[in-house]
Write a structure and sequence with these properties.
Layout: H1 4-9, H2 12-24, H3 38-50, E1 56-62, E2 70-78, E3 82-92, E4 112-114, E5 117-119, H4 127-142, E6 149-156, H5 167-173, E7 182-185, E8 195-200, E9 202-211, E10 215-216, H6 226-238, E11 257-263, E12 272-273, E13 276-285, H7 291-309, E14 312-316, E15 320-321, H8 331-344, E16 349-353, H9 359-364, E17 369-371, E18 385-387, H10 388-402
Parallel strand pairs: 3-6, 3-7, 7-17, 8-16
Antiparallel strand pairs: 1-2, 2-6, 4-5, 5-18, 9-13, 9-14, 9-15, 10-12, 11-13
Helix pairs in contact: 2-3, 2-4, 4-10, 6-7, 8-10
Length: 404
């Protein structure tokens, strides 16, 4: 029987094959003008069955925006010596659009190999995590080894656009997890494989609509300048960083951020004072501040702007998420740290991030989850790549994690 390192090194061509196949099946959500994950999910399920995985469950969230009407997720099970708890590795099937194609040096949907590097959309985010879990499980399967506890590989839909048709739907409709389960999400990390993410900042996205009265550029007295009011409001909301001003060294940056981002077109001519204006805010808030307190302060600022400028302010929250941290002494955190020490030879470091992983959805429901991987953080960038050597090291770490 091969040890895990030798086995995984013997699988390089199969790893490249799986990455290449997955990339070729474009899995973009309707929000990105895509048709979802069905084609990619079908191809992955076929590959898994061909390679000896038999216990595969499929869960389909309804979504009439895609041609098949469903957003599929898969669960692959490898029974362990004990089922007292399960060890989950959760990766996502969907990818983001390519962005500006002129910035890519090759076709994003055809994997290019350059020695240790694979280039293509999705190869890192999140196919590296998907493949590392598959080949770690394959080590047990091909060598006839029973893991210490049951292994569960979960491949979810809709991570890139809020998870409403992925993990959120699964948590609402399926009883998959137990409180004692070990849950790892290989969808973030660093180039050493040192950092284990155990907490996220609370996320609050704002889409703000300011309604005034359009008028001629020479007669501001006869209108209500929505652009001026919106600009002032965006600056005031940014200054909330000085109100919610605590610091936490677990995070980088170590403070809450309130940042104006996207703006929409208002009028077509310079000499028109706009009657409507739109802008967005991306707010990442330390977990010590409940979002209800932040929203109360936002509402106060909106009310002040309305009174000062004679406008009406409306806003929606395209994303709003808050979650507790996974304790450092939780079994998933300690077992993963021990596996990293064994395989990478380094001491793990526990961190918090700006927010936005599916870990928050699980923690909010009382499940301890961590986010970890070894990667160069190429997610969403042109010429996205992953290193085969990183994928193999991650897979070795998972083999170690699955032992007990």
């Amino acid at each position: 029987m091969q040890n895990s390192k030798d086995f995984l090194n013997s699988q390089v061509e199969n790893i490249v094959e799986l990455e290449t196949m997955l990339t070729s099946h474009i899995a973009i959500a309707p929000e990105g003008n895509g048709n979802g994950e069905v084609e990619k999910c079908n191809a992955l399920e076929q590959w898994l069955r061909k390679n000896g995985f038999e216990n595969i469950e499929r869960f389909e969230a309804p979504d009439n925006r895609v041609s098949d009407g469903i957003r599929p997720s898969l669960v692959v099970t490898i029974p362990g010596a004990s089922d007292e708890y399960r060890t989950w590795v959760m990766a996502h099937l969907d990818v983001v659009p390519t962005g500006d194609l002129s910035l890519w040096k090759s076709d994003p949907w055809k994997v290019q190999r350059d020695g240790d590097i694979l280039i293509g959309r999705g190869v890192e985010d999140n196919q590296q995590g998907l493949c590392s879990s598959v080949f770690a499980a394959l080590y047990y399967l091909k060598n006839g080894i029973t893991p210490g506890h049951t292994i569960k590989l979960l491949f979810v839909a809709d991570e890139e656009n809020g998870s409403e048709y992925g993990i959120i739907w699964l948590l609402k409709n399926k009883n998959l997890f137990r409180k004692e389960d070990i849950i790892l999400i290989p969808d973030g990390g660093d180039s050493e494989g040192r950092t284990i993410e155990i907490a996220e900042k609370n996320i609050l996205w704002l889409s703000v609509h300011v309604i005034g009265k359009q008028t001629h550029g020479s007669r501001p007295d006869s209108g209500a300048n929505a652009c001026l009011a919106a600009s002032d409001l965006s600056v005031r909301l940014h200054k909330l960083e000085k109100i919610f001003n605590k610091k936490d060294e677990l995070f980088e940056p170590d403070y809450s951020t309130f940042q104006p981002t996207k703006r929409a077109k208002n009028v077509d001519s310079i000499n028109i004072i706009p009657g409507e204006d739109w802008f967005c805010m991306d707010c990442r808030i330390l977990p010590c501040y409940p979002l209800k307190d932040v929203i109360a302060e936002i509402d106060k600022n909106c009310c002040n702007i309305e009174n000062e400028y004679g406008v009406k302010v409306e806003y929606t929250t395209p994303q709003k998420s808050e979650s507790p941290a996974t304790p450092v002494n939780a079994p998933v955190a300690q077992k993963l740290a021990a596996a990293i020490k064994q395989v990478h030879g380094i001491e793990a470091k526990f961190i918090g991030i700006g927010g936005g992983t599916v870990g928050a959805e699980l923690r909010r429901e009382g499940y301890n989850a961590v986010v970890w991987s070894t990667l160069d953080d190429m997610a969403h960038q042109p010429n996205e790549y992953c290193k085969i050597s990183n994928l193999i090291k991650d897979s070795q770490t998972l083999v170690e994690l699955f032992k007990d």
